[in-house]
């Protein structure tokens, strides 16, 4: 009895599975302005007929061994094709070029041969992936933002090391046309200066993070000082060095290896290493301030602020040296004078 029941369950399950497999909507998501393939398969056979429709709008048809575009809707004109050499093997996939937001929707792929016909539904969604996430410390708050995203993104904060209190900052989302912008800021009371802050912006298909490292302080002398851009020992691809959040010091292009030092900073930049470290020379106290390195990797942005404190070490030393030399000279002269006076007095006494 139990065995029979079990068999029935298995068969029902299997049929369900087959049904689901044959009819399930295979969702496709394509990037805006890119080319997109809507997949459709059928059992090969003679006299193929293919009709691609979008909610009853004719997209692309094929029969009598050629494309039939007489009924094609204007909005698809010149943007569709099917792979002719693959039709005989049961591939009716549609290539849709230069995808736009109006292309979103449910597509129907109808195929028929002398062996039978078949219908498949393919929902298409359009994506504009997260491109870049900006993070910055502005006054007493930390701001994270990203823009030009579709569909609606989410934004989350985390810290490194992990903080005991979670950050519940509700992001603000704006839509401009189709595209979304998102931003969030942490206020002074939410910020712990000892932590690194990570902001993640994501959609179903894309995800990028931006990390703001905690501020570090280094002390440099007038002669030379190196400031690190990243902990990584491997060469970095794109970075920008800024001074006091505004002046650009160095930019590195994607080409790798070549960097451009701004005119103004040329006397002060000695070198830039493969890992992005900046070596400064010829420093004076007006070069005291915050040096920011922005490192842009494939899926993340890293921001490191370093406060450079300048000690006027060498001139202090000089003053001290002059002081010591002067002091020694005074003592020596005094000693000589005293000695001479003493001798003279003794001599006079001896004479008397
Ligand atoms: C159908 O053909 C296209 C173009 O060659 C290809 O990209 C796609 O993977 C094919 N589909 C299958 C299921 O073979
Ligand atoms: C140091 O800076 C001065 C101008 O401020 C410049 O004339 C001089 O050439 C610089 N020294 C070096 C070693 O670049």
Summed up, the helix count is 3
The tally of beta strands, per DSSP, is 25
Which parts are unreliable, with pLDDT below 50 for 5 consecutive residues or more? 8-21, 315-322
User: What separation lies between the terminal Cα atoms?
Assistant: 147 Å
Outline: elongated
SS-derived structural category = alpha+beta
CATH homologous superfamily grouping of the largest domain: Immunoglobulins
Largest sheet: 9 strands, mixed
Global mean pLDDT: 84
Just name the CATH architecture of the largest domain: Sandwich
Q: How many domains comprise the coordinates? A: 3
Rg for CA atoms? 37 Å
Question: Which descriptors apply to this entry?
Answer:
352 residues; alpha+beta; Immunoglobulin-like; nine-stranded mixed β-sheet; six-stranded mixed β-sheet; 3 helices; elongated; binds 2-acetamido-2-deoxy-beta-D-glucopyranose
Verbal overview:
The structure is a single chain. The chain has 352 residues and is of the alpha+beta class. It folds into 3 domains: 20-127, Immunoglobulins (Immunoglobulin-like, Sandwich), CATH 2.60.40; 128-207, Immunoglobulins (Immunoglobulin-like); 215-312, Immunoglobulins (Immunoglobulin-like, Sandwich). 18% of the residues lie in helices and 42% in strands. It is built from 3 helices and 25 strands. It has helices spanning 2-23, 84-87, 313-351, and strands at residues 28-31, 36-38, 49-54, 57-63, 66-68, 80-82, 94-96, 105-113, 116-127, 134-138, 141-149, 154-160, 172-176, 179-186, 196-202, 207-212, 216-220, 224-227, 238-243, 247-252, 259-261, 269-272, 278-281, 289-296, 300-310. The strands form 5 sheets. Strands 12, 15, 16, 17, 19, 20, 21, 24 and 25 form a 9-stranded mixed beta sheet that branches. It has a 6-stranded mixed beta sheet with strand order 1-9-8-3-4-5, with no helix packed on it. Strands 10-11-14-13 form a 4-stranded antiparallel beta sheet, with no helix packed on it. A hairpin with a 6-residue loop joins strand 20 and strand 21. The longest helix is centred in the last third of the chain and has 39 residues, at 313-351. The chain is elongated, with a radius of gyration of 37 Å. The model is unreliable at 8-21 and 315-322 (pLDDT under 50). Bound molecules: 2-acetamido-2-deoxy-beta-D-glucopyranose (NAG) (2 copies). One 2-acetamido-2-deoxy-beta-D-glucopyranose (NAG) is lined by residues 267, 281-282. Residues 26-121, 123-211, 220-304 form the Ig-like domain. Pfam families: V-set. Residues 1-24 form the signal peptide. It is found in: Cell membrane. It comes from Oreochromis niloticus (Nile tilapia).
